[in-house]
Specification:
The chain is an alpha/beta fold. The protein contains 15 helices and 13 strands. The protein has a 7-stranded parallel β-sheet with strand order 3-2-1-4-5-6-7, with helices on both faces. The protein has a 6-stranded parallel β-sheet with strand order 10-9-8-11-12-13, with helices on both faces. α10 links the parallel β9 and β10. The termini are close together. It binds uridine-diphosphate-N-acetylglucosamine. The site of uridine-diphosphate-N-acetylglucosamine has 21 residues, from α1, α11 and α12.
């Protein structure tokens, strides 16, 4: 059984960490294809070093700025690689363009696909939602995070379906910080294009964050930094830092009073670490207890989140499993 893992973004590396580690420790025949769109090391390469993972076997360096061209480029490369080194199964993670092209090319070449984080929906008009819907319809194995997400399922007669919770639990298990310091600050991340590409929206968010009168530590995505500079937004009063390592990020999530984020991955980590989180989006695929949507009024969201009792409500790891990646591999190998 030969396995091929496809990844690209920061969260894909972090969430597929457990699968890669497990493949290594079982001496499975596997290889990793990085489609290579990230420009900076702190969004990609550095995580392999930090998590003690061997580097990818192929890096496609698909950096073309046109989305369709880039997808064609990735598809051509995948086809070439798989013609020479055909896997029995391709593993893709959630909804990126790489996951979509990986799924499509594999299906066209009659290779099986396992989709991790299947059937999550935000029902919003974003490219990722289209990718998710396509991949879910015709994958051979679907690994759905929670029972809640099962309600989204419409038709899957071709697939084997399992509820497994989220592979990020495995990464947290290995890199969770010890001890809470409670230093009285808020940890923030922001990168969704709806928040940062529009000058009005970005100015509004930063202004509302300042009005909280809290110490803010802001891990700033390169895309967001670029927009802040081009709109010349005044960031004083906010501690702005470049993308952090995984362990630094988890440490801040663990130690902050609460988290302000539009990151999909951080919402999950807040749930797992039982931290309160204000989601800077209109809708979410992850309506976990302890998180609330901000509805364009941050002060009100802050008041509301004070009343949430995170200890009572959060479903930590419903399957009570300590090795989700291992469970997934048991099902497909
Ligand atoms: C990302 C993608 C999105 C894709 C989705 C699903 C980006 C900008 N977004 O969303 O396009 O559809 O995955 O694959 O690529 N973290 C750090 N250091 C930091 C900040 C965050 O290690 O400074 C970690 C968090 O702990 C978390 C992960 O990165 O594990 C979250 O990644 P993030 O870039 O926030 O992406 P998502 O919103 O999850």
């Amino acid at each position: 059984m030969k396995i091929c893992i496809i990844l690209w973004t920061r969260p894909e590396i972090l969430k597929l960490y457990g699968i890669m580690k497990e493949c290594q420790s079982r001496w499975l025949d596997y290889y990793v294809i990085h489609t290579g769109q990230h420009y900076s090391d702190n969004m990609s390469k550095d995580f392999f070093e930090e998590l003690w993972l061997p580097r990818e076997n192929y890096n496609l360096m698909a950096k073309c700025s046109d989305r369709i061209e880039r997808m064609w480029e990735i598809q051509r490369w995948l086809q070439t690689i798989w013609k020479q080194d055909q896997p029995n199964i391709v593993i893709v993670q959630w909804d990126t363009d790489s996951a979509f092209v990986g799924w499509l090319t594999a299906k066209m070449m009659w290779i099986k696909v396992a989709h991790i984080e299947a059937w999550i929906r935000s029902n919003s008009d974003i490219p990722e939602e289209y990718n998710r819907r396509m991949i879910d319809q015709f994958s051979d194995y679907l690994f759905v995070p929670t029972e809640k997400d099962m309600k989204n399922i419409l038709y899957t007669s071709l697939s084997e379906l399992y509820i497994v919770w989220n592979t990020i639990c495995d990464t947290i298990r290995d890199f969770k910080p010890k001890g809470v310091m409670l230093w009285g600050y808020v940890f923030m991340t922001l990168h969704r294009n709806t928040n940062v590409d529009s000058e009005i929206n970005l100015r509004n968010i930063i202004q509302q964050v300042k009005w909280l009168w809290k110490k803010i530590i802001f891990s700033c995505h390169p895309r967001t930094m670029k927009m802040i500079e081009s709109f010349e937004i005044d960031m004083w009063e906010i501690v702005i830092v470049p993308p952090m390592t995984y362990q630094e990020t988890i440490w801040h999530i663990y130690n902050a009073d609460y988290i302000i984020t539009d990151s999909w991955g951080i919402q999950e980590e807040c749930c797992i670490l039982r931290k309160k989180c204000i989601i800077m989006r209109d809708s979410t695929e992850r309506p976990y207890k302890g998180s609330i949507l901000w509805k364009w009024d941050l002060k009100e969201a802050e008041d509301n989140i004070k009343n949430v009792n995170i200890w009572k409500q959060n479903p930590f790891n419903p399957n009570n499993s300590m090795n989700i990646s291992s469970e997934i591999l048991n099902l497909i190998v």
